[in-house]
């Protein structure tokens, strides 16, 4: 039996500070901009916000390359401003998570600069694979290359393309034969988490922000911190074998770190909270991050990556709930974030192709989506995104909403190559389109060239013309808009005790089997004296007559449901 905590059934809204609201008009969002929109978030009805990294950074991976963990990027604002934001968010009755990036620092971090300035040993006898861990290099992973130092130490591949190793120059500017590890961009050297100084430093970072009132952290790459001893080559991945994995993901050693972090969070009153970004399969391995002395919650990425396919969606919902139940941990639900295509675009069929072909082309690996230049039916995509949004909100647990998802924004592909900033695009010379398309500044109003993002019209990424109709002001005035649907849904989710709520031990979802296979239908039992609610989502291609007589609580759009008939790409909440 678990006592109910706020983070077990909250709505958390992800703010991507660069693109949320720009108060000083330099084309980049800022803390003052976020502060000005706290009332908007309150009206939307979210319980908490999660702020993507706000730290000083050379911004070679949009701030996930941190050069100082206890400060604020000056383009975003100051420490005083973020403290004011924390207070204002709390005053508005919401909680606040911030991001922390423990797997790697920026190459601009003091520690890495010290390492680069440190004299390296260099002679022909050093065997390949030898580790250099003297002085400041003890905090990172520096290995002797193969072929007398001339080639990379092993076959590991970076998430953004190319090898995970970058060769350091010696004091004379010549290649040194020593290579440092970077699972992501070369500007993001990986830290060595076997090093106690690294661990102590990060516990200090946690306390620094907890002491300033933040309620929790979203932990970047929570599955990456430990590397297999001896840095063995990656095995050949066997297709279909989910247990085969790279020697730098999901290593058992990292759980120690989460136990230490949990102890720090538990020192506080009320205890602070973590949400893990861990891309780990199978789901049972993922659940190990949620053991009761480790992290509180983690993102449900299988759910985010589910194709528009009812049996698959249902299977994923079932197995993620079941895996977390092993640890009696709540499940979270997420359909969008700053790393994946907007759901409207993901669910949009490619015009002229069959559904099956569209699905085969919908690989959601970071920036690896193919066929991005194909024409898509965004109207169908938008209907599906609305329908699945309601279905997500009816599931038990915490749900995440990414800024702009409440406006039904689509992925933006019309970005000139020279404006693109994602290292995935840059490292692969544009072979991978990358993630800039979900990071375009928000359209707030019809005013000015940047649609209310600021007064000057500057924007670090261009907004598409189609957003002139999608801005928040226009949607506020339209009763059938996605924004008003989101507001109503969030409000009802709070009022109707069955929705989102978790009472005690995690229980499997009860599916109705009296509907066709391409329809998802489930009932959330009443609690706290409320009434039960049925959520039905039609993933198929035909309207379906539902065998229920419950009355409508909410439907995904005006025409979604009438006289018992549920349209395709639509959903409805009914009394049950
Ligand atoms: C996951 C973050 O969400 C992503 O944006 C970033 O590029 C990588 N971690 C590296 O920090
Ligand atoms: Ca600004």
How would you describe the overall organization of this protein?
With 576 residues, the chain is of the alpha/beta class. The chain folds into three domains: 374 residues, TIM Barrel (Alpha-Beta Barrel); 72 residues, Oligo-1,6-glucosidase, domain 2 (Alpha-Beta Complex), CATH 3.90.400; 70 residues, Immunoglobulin-like (Sandwich). Helices cover 24% and strands 14% of the residues. It has 15 helices and 19 strands. The chain is globular. The protein binds 1-deoxynojirimycin and calcium ion. The site of 1-deoxynojirimycin has 9 residues, from loops.
Write the layout of secondary structure elements.
Blueprint: E1 11-15, H1 31-36, H2 38-44, E2 48-51, H3 79-91, E3 95-100, H4 110-117, E4 142-144, E5 165-169, E6 175-181, H5 196-210, E7 216-219, H6 255-266, E8 273-276, H7 283-287, E9 297-298, H8 301-305, H9 310-326, E10 332-334, H10 343-346, H11 355-360, H12 378-394, E11 398-402, H13 423-427, H14 472-476, H15 482-495, E12 510-511, E13 519-524, E14 533-538, E15 544-545, E16 552-555, E17 561-562, E18 565-566, E19 570-575
Parallel strand pairs: 1-2, 1-11, 2-3, 3-7, 7-8, 8-9, 10-11
Antiparallel strand pairs: 4-6, 5-6, 12-13, 13-14, 14-19, 15-18, 16-19, 17-18
Helix pairs in contact: 5-6, 12-15
Q: Briefly, what is this?
A:
Helices cover 24% and strands 14% of the residues.
Query: Number of helical runs?
Result: 15
Radius of gyration: 24 Å
Span between N and C termini? 26 Å
How many discrete domains?
3
Please name the CATH architecture of the largest domain: Alpha-Beta Barrel
């Amino acid at each position: 039996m678990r006592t109910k905590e706020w983070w077990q059934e909250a709505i958390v809204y992800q703010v991507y500070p660069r693109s949320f609201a720009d108060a000083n008009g330099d084309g980049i969002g800022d803390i003052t901009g976020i502060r000005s929109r706290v009332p908007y978030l309150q009206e939307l009805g979210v319980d908490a916000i999660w702020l993507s990294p706000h730290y000083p950074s050379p911004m070679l991976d949009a701030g996930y390359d941190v050069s100082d963990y206890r400060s604020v990027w000056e383009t975003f604002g100051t420490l005083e401003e973020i403290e004011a934001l924390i207070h204002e968010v709390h005053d508005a009755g919401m909680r606040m998570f911030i991001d922390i990036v423990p797997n790697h620092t920026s190459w601009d971090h003091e520690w890495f600069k010290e390492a680069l300035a440190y004299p390296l040993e260099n002679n022909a006898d050093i065997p390949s694979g030898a580790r250099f861990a003297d002085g400041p290099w003890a905090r990172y992973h520096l290995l002797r290359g193969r072929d007398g130092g001339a080639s990379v130490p092993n076959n590991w591949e970076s998430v953004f393309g190319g090898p995970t190793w970058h060769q350091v120059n010696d004091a004379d500017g010549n290649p040194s034969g020593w290579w440092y590890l970077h699972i992501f961009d070369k500007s993001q050297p990986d830290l060595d988490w076997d090093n106690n100084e690294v661990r102590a430093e990060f516990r200090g970072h946690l306390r620094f922000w907890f002491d300033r009132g933040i309620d929790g952290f979203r932990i970047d790459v929570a599955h990456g911190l430990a590397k297999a001893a001896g840095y063995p080559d990656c095995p050949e991945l066997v297709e279909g074998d989910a247990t085969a994995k790279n020697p730098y993901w999901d290593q058992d050693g990292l759980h120690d770190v989460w136990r230490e972090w949990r102890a720090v969070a538990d020192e506080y009153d009320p205890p602070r909270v973590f949400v893990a970004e861990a891309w780990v399969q199978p789901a049972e391995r993922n659940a190990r991050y949620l053991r009761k002395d480790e992290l509180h919650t983690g993102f449900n990425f299988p759910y985010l990556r589910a194709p528009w396919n009812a049996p698959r969606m249902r299977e994923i919902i079932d197995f993620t709930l079941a895996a977390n139940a092993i640890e009696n941990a709540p499940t979270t639900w997420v359909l969008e974030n700053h790393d994946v295509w907007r759901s409207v675009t993901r669910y949009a069929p490619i015009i002229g192709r069959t559904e099956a072909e569209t699905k085969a082309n919908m690989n959601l690996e970071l920036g690896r989506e193919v066929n991005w230049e194909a024409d898509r039916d965004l109207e169908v995509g938008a209907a599906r995104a609305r329908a699945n949004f309601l279905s997500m909100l009816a599931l038990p647990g915490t749900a995440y909403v990414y800024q702009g998802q409440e406006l039904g924004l689509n992925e933006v592909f019309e970005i000139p190559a020279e404006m693109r900033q994602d290292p995935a695009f840059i490292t692969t010379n544009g072979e991978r389109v990358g993630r800039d398309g979900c990071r375009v500044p928000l359209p707030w109003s019809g005013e000015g060239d940047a649609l209310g993002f600021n007064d000057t019209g500057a924007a670090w990424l261009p907004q598409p013309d189609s957003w002139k109709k999608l801005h928040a002001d226009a949607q506020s005035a339209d009763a059938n808009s996605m924004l008003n649907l989101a507001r109503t849904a969030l409000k009802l989710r709070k009022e109707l005790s069955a929705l989102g709520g978790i009472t005690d031990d995690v229980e499997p979802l009860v599916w109705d089997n009296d509907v066709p296979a391409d329809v998802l239908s489930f009932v959330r039992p009443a609690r706290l004296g409320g009434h039960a609610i049925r959520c039905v989502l039609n993933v198929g291609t035909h309207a379906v007559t539902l065998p229920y007589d419950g009355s409508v609580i909410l439907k995904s759009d005006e025409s979604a449901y009438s006289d018992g008939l549920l349209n395709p790409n639509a959903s409805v909440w009914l009394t049950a």
